[in-house]
Amino acid sequence: MIGQTISHYKIIEKLGEGGMGVVYKAEDTKLKRTVALKFLPPELSRSEDDKARFMQEAQAASAINHPNICTIYSIEEHDGQLFIAMEFVDGRTLRESKDSVNFKQAIDIGIQIAEGLAAAHEKGIVHRDIKPENIMIRKDGIAQIMDFGLAKLRASGSKITRLTKQGSTVGTAGYMSPEQVQGQDADHRSDIFSYGVLLYELLTGQLPFRGVHETALAYEIVNVDPAPMSSVKPEIDENLDALVLGCLEKDPRERMQSMAQVALDLKRFRRESSRQRMSRITAARPAMQQSGVHAQPATVPQVSPARKFVLPVATALLALAVIVLGWQSVKTGKGPTVPSMHLTINLPAENLMAAFGSSTLEISPDGQYIAYLGADGAVMQVVVRRLDQFTFDPLPTTAGATDLCISPDGEWIAYSTASEIKTISIRGGAAQKITSVPGLTRGMSWERDGNIYFGIINDGLFRVSAKGGTPEVVTTLDSTQNEISHRYPHMLPDGKTILYTIKPNNISTFSDALIAVQKIGSPEKKILIHGGTYARFVDPGAVIYLRGDQVYAVPFDAAKAEVTGAPVPVLDGGWLIEGSGQAAVSISGAGTLVFAPAGINEFNNTTIQTMDMQGNLHRLVDTARAYGGISLSPNGENVAADAGAANDDIWIYQLKKGILTRLTFGGGNNDLPIWSRDGNYVVYSAEKGKYLNLFRKRWDGSAPEERLTVSPYTQVAESFSPDGKFLAFSQNNDIWMLPMDGAKRPFPFVESPAHKYFAEFSPDGHWVAYSSDESGKPEIYVVPFPAQPGKWQISAGGGLAPRWSPNGKELYFISGTTVMVADISAGAAFNYSAQRKVCALPSTAVGLAGVTPDGKQFVLGINSAGQYTLNHISVITNWFDELKTKLSANKN
Q1: CA-to-CA separations, 329 to 129, 297, 325, 366, in angstroms, rounded
Q2: How far is CA 186 from the centre of its chain?
Q3: pLDDT of amino acid 56
Q4: Is 649 part of the annotated catalytic residue set?
Q5: In Å, what is the CA distance from 282 to each residue of 375, 607, 658, 745, 834?
């Protein structure tokens, strides 16, 4: 095949051959890059079922973008033979390289492989054939995992036995997990076992299982415990021994459960090999020591690899001891007598901590429970864990939660949704509605006076009895000081003074917000801190708050409500969302700190792109920002979009000139722009008061903005009629119309108890498409305009964001992760075809903004990798001692 051109690949040379196919080096003549082509044996894909399974697996693997995983570019077919086009890796396999790998390099390679597998497992992808032949070591030392998806294809061959699969040897079989050997289902923990075998061999030079023939090897893998690595090489640290043996547990339930944690443990070992460390477990482990943190107690014993089975019990007792010590300190007022300990808690993959909330992480005042907002797919719910147990308990009845707090006695959780505050037992069960709220809450605090205090997204602070009732006003906005929101309330010890964050209308980040105190019942407030958010009073006499990627502490006299010293950074992390001021930090009464070990949550990662009908993307606007609402002008020459910040603004990108200019300038949030039909104006929602009402402004900024509506409801502009005489907008879950001439008096167009959005006029103006959840889930409907009898459901299986083609003959919409279309034939009567698939919608797409004037492309936002969830949190016990030390050092 050398010298041939297959598709757009010119074969250069043969790189290798094995049981899973032949690999060639080739040139991609389209993109002018070097690639590797792997041609699979025809006998492995004769079955259409096998081929379909492989294509599905390989397509999933191709979505992984990680430096330690070989990138798959495409899966193609030539003369009935499947081949994979992948990244060309200039290096050698680990099998070829391992004899020249020293101990330090072995640890580095182990970390890289672990991180690559962790990335795959996070996407639900299992390799199933981890071995040295499938690890490439590049010339620059980077390790890359190869051949995702091939093991599943190979395992499906009916003539291939479990151990002697085609191209395999007994040595290769030695990397299989017990469940693979026994023909059982293999999940990500099977990869962990194989990884343990690989690392064992890399560190000792020999395999942990060495049966002289197939049957003996299978028996050893299933029944015989491997010898500790230190028995082969005495210089190997027994903590490293315990880690590897933890990967080699026979029972998947007792095995290390997360490759992400394995990577963290190896990194910790690399950095702290000379220190004693706490026992490792899956659910709670010591994290890396930070500067200024106490050393681990010398009385904590090291773990013998031969006694690994005692780890869960030992750690449970440790966690229980932390709680008992904390509880004793609450009762006696005396601090713990042990040094602080730093722990990491891994969160379940199906409920990672979500960035989209207000109070996303809380610890109960007695230190027994943590609760956080977990992302279960697209829905957030409250997840609870007792610190002396290993299990996480999602509370399904809290689906849709956006905020939470824990009661002073630690028995109840209050949480908010888009319209209500509810309470639920911390152990689960039925939820009880406490009150309705007029908007999204921004911070909740359940105080000892029996009230729940909360902020509202565009209002002051309120409180409501935990037993239920009507919210009372606690603070009011001072418009003379440009205040547009009070957030994140926290009561001082006197039970009469509230600490909170102020959002002015002229800041772009909550690192520039204000922190104030105010007596309940008094209109007077005192500004404590200029530049910070999410303030909390802590017992050592300090206020902690977030600014940037750090937690700061400032000495504070609670009796006088006065700052008494200079602020000092005390902790890296806290996961500040600079656009809303929310954070992930919480402290128990005894000084146990829980926090997200991440800094600023960066949302400036959205690009505006076009996508053709085959799903190919092309960047339209180069600058990446936190774009939300995106709208293409009718002539296709300009793009309007809002860019998220503490106060969002509208920006205009002139495509021909390549110029990005700002249209609005603070004064609150300005969001969700659309263009007038003549292309002269941009209409948007602006926060000139408590609610987002409709405004318009000439797109070139040549005239002042004009207010179109005054309403006690948030309004979102949707689309104009073709003649420009009517503006469809959503308000209070209904579709309304605003006449653009005369008195401009809006009127309801489609009303019902259902949620209705995305109203889109047809190009001829006779029809309006919209999305409604009246059937229980969002679907696309079309009704006549002006209002008259008739209504048609276009989608089947879900539908959002309807967009008409310029000629009105197609109606596009989103269904799940797919762009769908229905053909429209509308004259005197309305007719439509069954929906059909157009192309896949990228998983990182932000909606479907519209169709280009030529009808050939869509406009949409594409997110790059963003920090929207976290898979672990950190715990520091007896943190008050560390805080006191840092505050004292600052005085000196």
Answers
A1: 51, 19, 6, 10
A2: 26
A3: 63
A4: no
A5: 20, 37, 51, 61, 49
Q: How many CA atoms lie within 13 A of 650 on its CB side?
A: 31
d(CA 831, CA 746): 30
CA angle 674, 711, 691 (to 5 degrees): 70
* DSSP letters for 748-815: EEE--SS-EEEEEE-TTSSEEEEEE-TTSS-EEEEEESSS-S--EE--SS--EEEEE-TTSSEEEEEE
Tell the residue number behind the tokens 């294509």, with chain if given.
Answer: 55
Structure tokens at 756: 């209705």
546 SS3 class: strand
Q: Residue 115 and residue 195: Cα distance in Å, rounded?
A: 12
Say how far apart CA 762 and CA 851 lie, in whole Å.
Answer: 12
Dihedral of the CA atoms 822, 825, 828, 829 (nearest 10)? -40
Q: Helices 103-122 & 188-204, crossing angle to 10 degrees?
A: 170
Close Cβ partners of 702 (under 8 Å, ≥ 6 residues apart): none
The residues of the chain scoring below 70 in pLDDT are 18-20, 42-63, 149-172, 212-214, 272-338, 376-378, 602-603, 865-867, 892
| Helical axes 238-247 vs 259-272, angle rounded to 10° | 170
- The whole-model pTM stands at 0.59
Report the residue count for the chain. 892
Catalytic: which of 50, 129, 459, 671?
129
Strand duo 441-446 + 432-436: pairing: unpaired
Rounded to whole angstroms, the Cα distance separating 880 from 889 reads: 14
